[in-house]
Specification:
33% helix, alpha/beta, 10 strands, 283 residues, Protocatechuate 4,5-dioxygenase, Chain B, 10 helices
Length: 283
């Protein structure tokens, strides 16, 4: 059967992608950010998955305010990097895994989670920046990717509890697939940041690091945190962190297995006007 061997969590700051694409990674401002991912890139080479299930949020490229699904799974064979207003990022096309994606959709919907099935969409920085941080700048991404988009843009957005339980359903779906695949599940977005209004530029280091602590040791407790706490403490865009709970819910300890191993943890301020957080957990 297929199995989830690890979960990866990372911010997906668009300016990080621009720094990579424009050759600015060696500049003093950006060096600390990319240094924090050096160990992760080596880990990725040493623990190459067969498939990545990547949880992210779309930023009005695949979807618009006219139509926003709460949860959407990509079932296409290929995804083009999106043009977010200044041309697509110069990164490889994303190869999908239609067979596993369709199986997950079938299983998760039968577990009473309503998913939107997307057979065609472009993928923006929410998906491509995490791939760049973990994989560098290859000619092709190292494996197929299943995009899983979550609405954290237009309220109402899904609760932390809903996201954690969805992760549990995704784990069951993957483990019921009858091909021997090594799967990573990634949760992206966050950490604390606000892009507009009087609190624009808000960063809350204490909240961010407490969140990382609870992601490791108490995901059920973190799943009970209400939306208003994220917005008040981590800024209006801090709500993106609920997407991490989908990846965390898929880990073995929440199905009675042992606690995950922490392989890497990193936190840095600032990157653009955002805090950057990163975590790798192994089953």
């Amino acid at each position: 059967m297929a199995r989830i061997t690890a979960s990866v969590y990372t911010s997906h700051v668009p300016a990080i992608g621009a720094a990579l694409d424009l050759g600015k990674t060696g500049e003093p401002y950006w060096q600390p950010v990319f240094k924090g991912y050096e160990a992760s890139k080596q880990w990725m080479k040493d623990n190459k998955p067969d498939v990545i299930f990547l949880v992210f949020n779309d930023h009005a490229t695949a979807f618009s305010l006219e139509m926003i699904p709460t949860f959407a799974i990509g079932t296409a064979a290929e995804y083009q990097p999106a043009d977010e207003g200044w041309g697509p990022r110069p990164v490889p096309r994303v190869q999908g895994h239609p067979e596993l994606a369709s199986h997950i959709a079938q299983s998760v919907i039968q577990q009473d989670f309503d998913l939107t099935i997307v057979n065609r969409m472009d993928v923006d920085h929410g998906l491509t920046v995490p791939l760049s941080l973990m994989c560098g700048q290859p000619e092709a991404w190292p494996c197929p990717v299943i995009p899983f988009a979550v609405n954290v843009v237009q309220y109402p957005v899904p609760s932390g509890r809903r996201c954690l339980n969805l992760g549990k359903a995704i784990r069951k779906a993957i483990e019921s697939y009858d091909e021997d695949l090594n799967v990573h599940i990634w949760g992206t977005g966050g950490m604390s940041h606000q892009l507009q209004g009087p609190r624009a530029g808000l960063i809350n280091k204490a909240f961010d690091n407490a969140f990382l602590d609870r992601m490791i040791a108490d995901p059920e407790g973190q799943a009970a945190v209400p939306h208003i706490d994220y917005v008040r403490e981590a800024g209006s865009e801090g709500i993106e962190l609920v997407m991490w709970l989908i990846a965390r819910g898929a880990m073995a300890d929440l199905a009675g297995g042992p606690a995950p191993r922490v392989k890497h943890r990193f936190y840095h301020v600032p990157a653009s006007n955002t805090a950057v957080g990163h975590l790798i957990l192994e089953n």
